[in-house]
Design brief:
By secondary structure, the chain is α/β, with parallel strands linked by helices. The chain is built from 12 helices and 20 strands. Helix 6 packs parallel to helix 8, helix 7 packs antiparallel against helix 8 and helix 11 crosses helix 12. The chain binds adenosine-5'-diphosphate, aspartic acid and magnesium ion.
């Protein structure tokens, strides 16, 4: 019989009724003879509410206290689910990150898991008890609660599955699996039976929030078998009806494009009238790197006659204010006084992802032509081996997604 890690996201535990539904799913797997550890998120909306309380006290709050506050939602659901399981005659106990312990680094609000002590867990399994683990949280070397970044319960589940050597990690959510595009935006999106780790990693990193990027990174590295499936369907994970993450050689069908994503988390900055001399890019990006501001897409135009250049790049929207203030300091300190800055948050990044791109030419051109046919202007382009991303005006995001979905033949025929 299998050793399973079952993870339930916010909508799956949004109400007491939903938690009872989750308890039925866990009970079904246990009664079928499987051993299960469960990872839960906070009830839908709770983490957002907790984050906004912190913002209201102070936008520049202490990250350690932020973690103390925002980790609390998962504590509630772990206890409630343990009770619901006990009511069904199943031996269950809740576990907070510090109790296991899930050891992380000290980067509060975006901590990385460094180690999970599985000793107590293995005892739980041996005693046939279900461990209900609060996702999203761990403990720093100083013994303080940390959180793993938004959507981090996925990573808690995959890390736990890797640590205990689970046969499968089932990620239960509010959609039936991983789709070719966000089904909430593109109704014709198709559910995929399989997707390879590399593609899922790219899709997650450019906006498919169904799995946190780090959870896919970890699944790929540790070779964890992950399935994404709906918590609202009748079937449980052992009936295998969701989307399986597999290695590239296990893929049964290799599509040219597997997925199209949209991210509204970026802001665009344009610097005009920069001197076109060696070292300018380092002067701009050095202080941003020091402040851990992640610069993503970059484009530079050279105007040879004036010896001036324009530089456009994107940063996380949440870091826009910080970027502006860092840049204003650089202007003073680095002799860039003549330069002007424009910024905009009304942008969306649309990406196409597929391993088929490695062996086919013209894939990016089809994207550019499709957007051109719809009159959508592209501000910035970036590519990787299996991904092309474009930055466009946010108001065109949905139109672009639907047009590209049709152009690459991904629309569900049903
Ligand atoms: P949970 O609370 O279960 O962790 P999330 O809200 O984090 O769920 O992730 C599930 C959501 O991800 C879906 O409701 C869907 O709108 C969104 N999503 C975005 N892109 C995709 C995709 N390619 N496939 C499936 N879902 C996607
Ligand atoms: N509750 C956390 C969040 O909303 C973690 C998670 O749900 O994965 O980001
Ligand atoms: Mg999530």
């Amino acid at each position: 019989m299998a050793l399973l890690v079952m993870k339930f996201g916010g909508t799956s535990v949004a109400t007491i009724e939903a938690i009872e539904n989750v308890a039925n799913k866990v009970a079904a797997e246990v009664r079928a003879g499987h051993s299960a550890a469960v990872v839960v998120s906070a009830m839908a909306g709770v983490t957002n509410q907790l984050v906004s309380y912190c913002q209201e006290i102070s936008p520049l709050h202490d990250a350690r206290e932020y973690d103390a506050v925002v980790s609390s939602g998962e504590q509630v659901t772990s206890g409630l689910l343990a009770m619901a399981l006990q009511k069904r005659g199943i031996n269950a106990r809740s576990w907070q990150g510090w109790q296991i312990p899930i050891l992380t680094d000290r980067s509060h609000a975006k901590a990385r898991i460094e180690d999970i002590d599985t000793e107590k867990f293995k005892q739980q399994f041996a005693g046939n008890a279900v461990a209900v683990v609060a996702g999203f949280q761990g403990i720093s070397p100083e013994g303080r609660i940390t959180t793993l970044g938004r959507g981090g319960s996925d990573t808690s589940a995959v890390a736990l599955a890797a640590a205990v050597g689970a046969d499968r990690c089932d990620i239960y959510t509010d959609v039936k699996g991983v789709y070719t595009c966000d089904p909430g935006i593109v109704p014709k999106a198709k559910k995929l039976k399989q997707i390879c780790y590399e593609e899922m990693l790219e899709m997650a990193s450019v906006g498919a929030k169904v799995l946190q990027t780090r959870s896919v990174e970890m699944a790929m590295k540790e070779n964890v078998c992950v399935q994404v499936l709906s918590s609202f369907a009748d079937a449980v994970g052992s009936d295998l009806k969701g989307t399986l993450l597999v290695s590239e050689d296990e893929l049964m069908e290799k599509a040219l494009i597997s997925g199209i994503t949209c991210s509204r988390d970026d802001a665009k900055i344009t610097l005009r009238k920069l001197p076109d001399t060696p070292g300018v890019a380092a002067k701009i990006f050095g202080p941003l790197a020091e402040a851990s501001v992640n610069v993503d897409m970059i484009v530079q135009n050279i105007a040879a006659d004036t010896k001036m250049t324009d530089l456009t790049f994107t940063v996380p929207r949440a870091d826009l204010e910080r970027t502006i203030s860092i840049f204003n300091k650089s202007i003073k300190n680095e002799g860039l006084e003549g330069c002007e800055m424009e910024h905009s948050s009304d942008v969306a990044k649309i990406s196409i992802v597929g391993i088929g791109m490695r062996s086919h030419a013209g894939v990016a051109q089809q994207m550019f032509q499709t957007l051109a046919d719809k009159g959508i202007n592209i501000h910035v382009i970036s590519t990787s081996e299996i991904k092309v991303s474009v930055l466009i005006g946010e108001e065109y995001a949905e139109l672009a997604l639907r047009a590209l979905h049709t152009a690459y033949g991904l629309d569900d025929a049903a």
